Amino acid sequence: MLIWLHASRTFAKIESDSLILQRVLTYKESMPAKLDGIHTNIYIRYYFKTEKRNFTLMAIPSMYAISRGNREYAGESYSTIYIKDNVVKESTRQLNTGTIPRYKNTMTTMLKYLLPDIYNVTILDNQILSPFNKHNLNLYRYDITLLTNKRAEIVFRPKRYNTQLISGSAIVDRVSGRVIKIGFNGEYDMVNFHVNAEMGKYGLRSLLPKTCDIDATFHFIGNKIKASYHSVYDNPIFLPDSIVNSHDSKLMAEVRPTPLPESIKQVYQKNDSIKAKTDTVKVKKEESKWKKILWNSFGDYVINRTKGNFGAKDQGAFRISPILNPLYLSYSGRRGVTYKLKLNGSYKFSLNRDISIEFKAGYSFKQNQFYFNIPIRFNFNKRRNGYIGLDIGNGNRITNSSIVDQIKHESLDSIDWDKLELDYFKDFYVKFMVNYDLSNKWSVKPGMIYHRRSAVNEAGFVAANRPTTYYSFAPSLEIQFRPSGWSGPIITADYERGVRIGSADMDYERFEFDVSWKKNFYSLRSMSLRLGSGFYTSKSRNSYFLDYTNFRDENIPGGWNDDWTGEFQLLNSNWYNVSEYYVRTNATYESPLMFFSRIPYIGRLMEMERIYINVLFVDHLHPYVEYGYGFTNRFFSMGFFMATRNKDFDGVGFRFGFELFRDW
């Protein structure tokens, strides 16, 4: 009898615990299907203390402003924001005070932690898997303690130590499953953090924090920065719309919802004291002024990202990548070291019309080639994805296929691509297109493209009595079909027809078909699939170039999670232009918890792992296959690849790219 009673109580406790956890996991589903967004005022207070620093701190995005000078900085901001689906859609900072020079934003990567989406698959924007989402249930262990008739505590810890997982506890409502308070610890992107959030009580606000506090420590190459944040939502004081980015400390004191802690008061007092002394010192004023200007300019344009707005109502925006940025440095065995630079700008005429321009440039040290691309886009109807586009660039070097045809009768192994310098051409192009979505499933994009291809080794062509420059002009048409809308597969058909006009003397006809699909699974897992084919039905008799739209060197389809998906890594670049047809397929599977994540110490650093399979059929390659494995951590991405050609081993290689501070 005692054994039966004990078993009954144990079963009852297990049942009670499982029901409480189930209510928490399904709490968000109890909300109405359609939730209106909310406008709210948010107050943020921050404090930075530099315990250790060296010259490398200035190279870290947003940290340049505190890389010298004082060891302690503090500040506050007061903003009006619009939140929809736990995402800040609009934000206007009305007050911004503090001691950081020129009121610069510092350690901005931490701001997303102030709005944790605890019921979503990921707590942050595609980062950190939440313990309170049913799809992550198998990643955590839970211990539940009943506190009162209405409250319980849930302690959670990961089954595997990984940077995408957290540990902590939450106080929950036993009846509804609403999280009342939550605290969790983790480590991501070289930041150790502890977050405490008190959630709202009713409706949509119960999915959002009422207050949120963060204590964080950043470590990098001998630098150690401690940071703390305190945020309060739903502040009752609304400021006039005319107040934007004001530095009025008196007004900040009026809207401040909670008193300042003593540590921040001391930082403010010290800063005021330094300002008072500076105002009385006139010695070497001019020299200090120019030194300050040069130092700030160096930080703004060389180290930091430069961005801003212009126009009467900030309709325009621009963004310039820093000159010294490891994120734009990459390496592959085929291309060597490559460095890139990006600049972009935009201007908004209305909610439905805007214009954007981007300048992307890079230099391949191994290929000794500078390349650029300038896409310009005018959106005349954003609701229908209607835009007019102009794309100018110099592309990758291409081979003259008519010369390749002359040596096709030779055996494949006898072709030495490195010595065929006479076949290499520089490619300058101009594309014009107009796109319009007829519906959610159909799009049409007519256009035209102009190519000017000039020989790299002009002297050799002159000696061989061959033209050094070739021109082509072709109208084009692309039709896109999306059977399930934008969330499903995308089927694309491309047609291009070369015509003789002016100096353009190449006539050809080309068809291409492409199917791509990125299927997102839960817990940050996804599968990217692509199948494509293209062929020429006619071409000029004397000279022509086999140049495809969807099969070209460094062709990166939009929508993938990384730049290596959908691209052949070890394929010699000449193979893109030697066949009158191609059939290709690419597949990539990615997950944050795959192989390396299971290895102690190493696994905790893994953010994402990927498996690649790429298959190609062209003339002489039946088939060419690449197998690859790649991973991403806080420092870099690396991929290892092996290739086979006609079932024979064809080589191995790897790719490397920096990931440092990508989300900063």
Structure explained in plain terms:
By secondary structure, the chain is mostly beta strands. The protein has a domain at about 475-660. Helix content is about 10%, strand content about 45%. It contains six helices and 32 strands. The protein has helices at about 1-25, 250-255, 260-280, 285-305, 400-405, 460-465; strands spanning about 40-50, 70-85, 85-100, 120-125, 125-130, 140-145, 150-160, 165-175, 180-190, 190-200, 210-220, 225-230, 305-310, 315-320, 330, 335-350, 355-365, 370-380, 385-395, 400, 425-435, 440-455, 470-480, 485, 490-495, 510-520, 525-540, 580-590, 605-620, 620-635, 635-645, 650-660. The strands form three sheets. It has a 16-stranded antiparallel barrel. A hairpin with a 2-residue loop joins strand 16 and strand 17 (about 355-365). The N and C termini lie far apart (about 65 Å). Mean pLDDT is about 80; it is low at about 1-15, about 405-420 and about 555-560.
